[in-house]
């Protein structure tokens, strides 16, 4: 079977490395042969591969960087909308799901000659519905919010590719986040950035502006071999309970993955393979708990000046099934110190922008900008096609993105914020000598504001916002030379 594994733009190399690791797992090898496509030299928003159909289960369970795992159903040339209908209606959808299940169809395109993506979507939807009605005598209902089955199609200038989405809800929705701080960072982007930094379990990791803890929770789960899909796979007893502050329902084992609602994956043989994948993962988790028995052994810690965000972090940490309480303090970043007085480690942070730029302000005040950022987090689709023909929904997102950039530009000119960055840069030089500092930001001028020369910059996308991951190598201070009395 052919798959396309979707990821945030800029993380293709990291995803290719992760897919190779998943393919080399003994339980993955037992499923059959895996062949991963060559790593692209330019951003493609994902990686293609050939794998047994059971590979969809392993990919959805284990991939931290993937947004979705798409199963290719067909690929063919096209010239007009009727070609889309003909291809989609010729597929045996009845072998994959029933007419009693709800359906959603999404179409994206790059340089397609068709005038309307909405009409193209309608033709593919009609083809699937007509096929099931002709075969079964009944037609499925459409549900754009919480469908049982998702079909995606992508149009190039000459070809259409049709996929079944085996993930369901986007994979960055792990199930442990039931509230978010400002400037939310998607979990799979955080995992990809950790891969880029070269951080390894057991190495000191510190985030002085940790917010609700995305970087640190992803790192802790990596250290403890907790699969990113563990909650959705039902690998724990009772699902985590949302707090009073929950901004949306938690993703739970009841939501699961898209493949669990497809007929082939409910065959006894596939169910047995699914059980084996989970049992192997549970055994690895128990082994890692021996290696990292408590939070101190993880050497993962953080801080944030915002009391509300620190509280969110603690709740997220517990729902992520991590040990004890997180090593986090409510502290100004300008007062942060290396954990345990260590002379080397990895600092990773996503400095606040928009409302979170008010570093020294109050403790979690509500502001209008939070609402716009909440909408951006929840509505941005995770697909590989960044250069689609623009629909009305995409136009709204573009407008929101431009508003974010305008807001950021205004804040960047704030003398208080510029002064803060200068002070923080000096603090890093004075206090974190010997450390590698990684900063994810949409501010391309950040190195100059910190007054530190970056050693590397990596282009990335945080949702719709173009960012850079800057690396700063902090040199250890040389000890002062002692002058003898004779001199």
What does this entry look like structurally?
- The chain is an alpha/beta fold and 487 residues long.
- The protein contains 14 helices and 14 strands.
- The protein has helices at residues 12-24, 26-29, 55-62, 81-89, 117-136, 187-197, 214-223, 268-291, 295-298, 307-319, 368-379, 392-412, 415-431, 446-450, and strands at residues 2-6, 35-36, 46-50, 68-77, 103-109, 149-155, 159-165, 205-207, 300-304, 327-330, 346-349, 436-441, 456-462, 465-473.
- Helix 4 (81-89) runs parallel beside helix 5 (117-136) and helix 6 packs across helix 7 (214-223).
- 45% of the residues are buried.
- The model is unreliable at 354-397 (pLDDT under 50).
Provide a quick synopsis of the model.
By secondary structure, the chain is of the alpha/beta class.
Write the layout of secondary structure elements.
Elements: E1 2-6, H1 12-24, H2 26-29, E2 35-36, E3 46-50, H3 55-62, E4 68-77, H4 81-89, E5 103-109, H5 117-136, E6 149-155, E7 159-165, H6 187-197, E8 205-207, H7 214-223, H8 268-291, H9 295-298, E9 300-304, H10 307-319, E10 327-330, E11 346-349, H11 368-379, H12 392-412, H13 415-431, E12 436-441, H14 446-450, E13 456-462, E14 465-473
Parallel strand pairs: 5-6, 8-9, 8-11, 9-10, 11-12
Antiparallel strand pairs: 1-3, 1-4, 2-3, 4-7, 6-7, 12-14, 13-14
Helix pairs in contact: 4-5, 6-7
């Amino acid at each position: 079977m052919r798959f396309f594994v979707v990821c945030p733009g800029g993380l293709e190399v990291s995803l290719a490395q992760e897919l190779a690791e998943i393919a080399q797992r003994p339980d993955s090898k037992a499923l059959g042969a895996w062949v991963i496509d060559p790593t692209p030299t330019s951003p493609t928003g994902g990686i293609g591969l050939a794998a047994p159909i059971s590979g969809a289960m392993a990919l959805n369970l284990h991939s931290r960087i993937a947004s979705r795992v798409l199963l290719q159903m067909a690929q063919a040339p096209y010239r007009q909308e009727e070609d889309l209908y003909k291809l989609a209606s010729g597929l045996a959808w009845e072998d994959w799901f029933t007419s009693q299940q709800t359906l959603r169809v999404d179409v994206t395109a790059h340089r397609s000659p068709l005038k309307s993506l909405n009409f193209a979507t309608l033709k593919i939807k009609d083809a699937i519905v007509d096929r099931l009605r002709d075969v079964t005598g009944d037609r499925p209902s459409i549900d754009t919010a919480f469908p049982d089955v998702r079909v995606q199609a992508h149009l190039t200038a000459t070809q259409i590719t049709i996929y079944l989405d085996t993930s369901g809800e986007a994979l960055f929705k792990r199930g442990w986040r039931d509230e978010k701080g400002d400037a939310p960072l998607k979990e799979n982007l955080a995992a990809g950035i950790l891969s880029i930094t070269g951080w390894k379990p057991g190495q000191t990791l510190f985030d002085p502006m940790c917010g609700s803890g995305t970087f640190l929770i992803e790192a802790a789960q990596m250290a403890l071999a907790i699969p990113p899909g563990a909650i959705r796979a039902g690998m724990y007893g009772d699902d985590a309970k949302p707090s009073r502050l929950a901004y949306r329902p938690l993703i739970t084992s009841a939501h699961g993955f898209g493949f669990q609602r497809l007929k082939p994956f409910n065959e006894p043989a596939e169910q047995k393979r699914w059980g084996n994948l989970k049992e192997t993962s549970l055994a690895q988790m128990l082994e890692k708990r021996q290696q990292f028995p408590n939070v101190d052994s993880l050497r993962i810690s953080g801080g944030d000046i915002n009391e509300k965000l620190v509280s969110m972090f603690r709740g997220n940490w517990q729902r992520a099934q991590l040990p004890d309480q997180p090593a986090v303090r409510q502290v100004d970043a300008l007062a942060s110190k290396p954990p345990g007085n260590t002379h080397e480690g990895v600092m990773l942070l996503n400095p606040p922008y928009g409302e979170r730029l008010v570093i020294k302000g109050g403790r979690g005040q509500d502001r209008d900008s939070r609402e716009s950022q909440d909408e951006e987090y929840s509505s941005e689709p995770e697909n590989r096609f960044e250069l689609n023909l623009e629909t009305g929904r995409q136009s709204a997102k573009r407008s929101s993105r431009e508003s974010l950039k305008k807001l950021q530009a205004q804040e960047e000119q704030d003398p208080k914020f510029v002064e803060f960055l200068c002070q923080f840069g000096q603090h890093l030089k004075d206090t974190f000598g010997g450390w590698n500092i990684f900063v994810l930001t949409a501010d391309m001028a950040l190195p100059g504001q910190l007054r530190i020369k970056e050693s590397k910059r990596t282009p990335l996308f945080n949702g719709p916002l173009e960012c850079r991951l800057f690396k700063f190598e902090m040199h250890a201070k040389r000890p002062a030379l002692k002058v003898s009395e004779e001199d």
